[in-house]
């Protein structure tokens, strides 16, 4: 395998409530709900995708909202922090916005950059950083104008139970470059201009456990089906055990767990979220794969309705 991954494709997490999640990621953070579908392995649970105006690779955070989910504990074997990228000059806007919405935030520094760290309602750890790189968002919603909007992922902090092995995987399997080490973290860089800076803890971290408020997996980009097949052979040849390739409708996926306990996915960039909805109407309707269409009525009865709405604070 000679082609490295461009960077993060998407990140998927567990939460409890669909409406609360939509209010936070669309209402507060200004992301677009680009797909409302179901967990193909548990059709009584939504699978919600939020990203830029098109749901471009490198912008997509996805959720399984399950009311009865236990509370998770963030720790080793997980994505510990998801980093969002905003335009240069937008940091102050986001400080003011989170304060207005009563979201507690803390300014931190790492590798010479300033971050705004906060949590979502379920306790997922998020941060915002401003950088010049990355295409500007064309999406605006509620109190977030396009010129201040999140561009996509800046990267992520991986919490590993075997950091040396995770670092080796990132470089020698995924094709990232180690660009530095500072304090508690090593930093790695991929080739894209978003979703491209990955930090990993230097010392071993105690394992967390899954549940609401934790990340289920991080997905990395493959440019097409042909490259995806090569990735599967490459991962298997590197001593890992990838799953068969699975069709997720909007991308194809394969999964494997790396030595530090983190579940990795490799996902294709195409076909994307406009394959079954008009671009202007993304996320408006519950979309089901054809094998579930016969059960649509039953599935819709199991799902609690929710809406994407402007927050009351933004109507004043």
From TrEMBL:
Pfam families (UniProt xref): Glyoxalase (PF00903)
Source superkingdom: Bacteria
Segments forming domain VOC: 7-131, 152-269
GO MF assignments: dioxygenase activity
UniProtKB keywords: Dioxygenase, Oxidoreductase
Name used for this protein in its record: Ring-cleaving dioxygenase
Entries under SUPFAM superfamilies matching the protein: Glyoxalase/Bleomycin resistance protein/Dihydroxybiphenyl dioxygenase (SSF54593)
Listed transmembrane segments: none
């Amino acid at each position: 395998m000679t082609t490295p991954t461009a960077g993060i494709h998407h990140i998927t997490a567990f939460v409890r409530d669909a409406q609360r999640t939509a209010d936070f990621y669309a209402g507060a953070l200004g992301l677009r709900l680009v797909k409302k579908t179901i967990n193909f392995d548990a059709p009584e649970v939504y699978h919600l995708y939020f990203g830029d105006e098109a749901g471009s690779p490198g912008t997509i955070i996805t959720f399984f909202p399950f009311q009865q989910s236990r509370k998770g504990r963030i720790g080793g074997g997980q994505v510990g922090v998801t980093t969002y990228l905003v335009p240069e000059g937008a940091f102050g806007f986001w400080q003011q916005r989170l304060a207005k919405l009563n979201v507690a935030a803390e300014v931190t520094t790492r590798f010479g950059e300033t971050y705004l760290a906060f949590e979502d309602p379920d306790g997922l750890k998020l941060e915002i950083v401003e950088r010049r790189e990355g295409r500007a968002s064309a999406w605006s919603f509620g109190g977030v104008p396009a010129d201040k909007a999140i561009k996509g992922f800046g990267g992520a902090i991986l919490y590993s139970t075997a950091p040396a092995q995770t670092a080796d995987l990132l470089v020698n399997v995924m094709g990232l470059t180690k660009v530095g080490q500072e304090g508690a973290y090593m930093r790695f860089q991929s080739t894209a201009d978003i979703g491209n800076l990955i930090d990993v803890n230097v010392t071993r971290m105690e394992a967390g456990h899954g549940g609401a408020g934790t990340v289920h997996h991080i997905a990395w980009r493959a440019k097409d089906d042909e490259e995806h097949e090569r990735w599967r052979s490459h991962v298997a040849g590197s001593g890992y055990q990838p799953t068969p390739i699975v069709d997720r409708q909007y991308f194809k996926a394969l999964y494997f767990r790396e030595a530090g306990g983190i579940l990795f996915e490799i996902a294709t960039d195409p076909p994307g979220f406009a394959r079954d909805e008009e671009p202007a109407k993304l996320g408006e309707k519950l979309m089901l794969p054809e094998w579930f269409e016969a059960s649509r009525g039953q599935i819709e009865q199991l799902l609690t309705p929710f809406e994407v709405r402007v927050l009351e604070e933004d109507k004043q």
